[in-house]
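We emphasize that the prediction below concerns an isolated chain of 448 residues; any contacts that depend on oligomerization or on bound cofactors are therefore not represented. The input was used exactly as deposited, without trimming of termini.
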Amino acid sequence: MDQLTIGIVGTIGMLFMVFLGVRVYAAAAMTGLLGCVAVLALDGSGGFDLARGWSAGAGIVGTIPHSKAVNYALSVLPMFILIGFIAYHAGLTHALFNAARAWFGWVPGGLAVATVFATAGFAAVSGASTATAAVFSRVAIPHMLQNGYSKQLSAGVVAAGGTLASLIPPSAILVIYAIIVEQSVGALILAGFLPGVVSAIIYAMLIIGQCMIDPSQGKPVASPPLLERVKTLPPIMPIALVVAIIFYSMYSGKATPTEAGALGAFVIFVIAVMRGMKWGNMQEALLETAKLTVMIFALIWGILIFVRFLGFAGLPQAFAEWIIQLPFPPVVIMIGILLGYAVLGMFMDAIGMLLLTLPVVYPAVIALGYDPVWFGIIVVKMCEVCLITPPVGLNCYVVHAVRPDIPLGAVFRGIAPFFGADVATVALFIAFPEIITWLPSMLGAGAN
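Result of the prediction step, given as a token string:
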């Protein structure tokens, strides 16, 4: 058995464990350890020296958690996550929805449109899609149901709107992508802004079209006078301030993403205290931040052990060479890769899928000549699609858990049109890559 065969067998075994229900970090770490031992035990003549393999493999694997935990780029994750949880516990989400309702409620499906833009605003201070879906299940769905909106549209728009947190900065998934493929965190964070805005606008257009065709899905609501609408803007200024601080500090090159995130967390903390945030709420925000951070770190450690094994086995290089030799244009191969993500996303969560596939897929994509920042946004957009794709569709389960009065089937039926909108959005980004690459190209060295 050669190195490549060991790599293929290990990958199949790891995927099999994941489908059986083993946690992704555990399956990846165990496969990575055993795979490293097996590859390093090869003696060049077809035999195995297990003692040598274990000594070398365990030694290499044992250094990965510490060496990666002290990686400076990883420190941006808890900062961005903390911003989102403090904003939620400080009550800023209600202010976002109230402002969006006042300004967009008059259009067909106005409350649903308001929910899309409110989730986009919350995504700008939160890197967690499931947290966004859970928050607006409590904030937006009651208002929509009270105004006669269908349960399908109400639940679907919250589940789909929550996915915007994967793309609109700050995004935990974008940071993970940057770390795995060793790209600029700042460039990727900024690259996600315009695609996130475009996604929100396409969602809003979809809702308006749906409700024009079938007004029973969601009718407009009366807008308050202009002065009353203007009064809804000051309460959302703290979120706008935090977003402006993060973007300006990174765009100008005056701060790294981690420093920008820390500054944003400090500002949102000061605002929360000024708004009278209770110590119990602050404790809860800190605890939730710690839980989510530990979960993500465990995933990264396990996957990086697996990545080291794949490197020793030579699987990424072999896959890249095979992809390049296919007799198809690069765009056709790219579409095939994205279809693979769509299928895989039916059975895996977004972060796990991203971490498991990138070590093999990324070298092939770069070998085809695609921009790594562009591909990062495309693949994260596919992760958004997976968050609303049955049977896993994590955001749909979150909405159902918060609102058990809405059947899970109704939630999945509600997100079906948004799945079509996401497919159209990905096609738009493939046809016009400048939507993604323009802002980072304007940034220059400040993204590093």
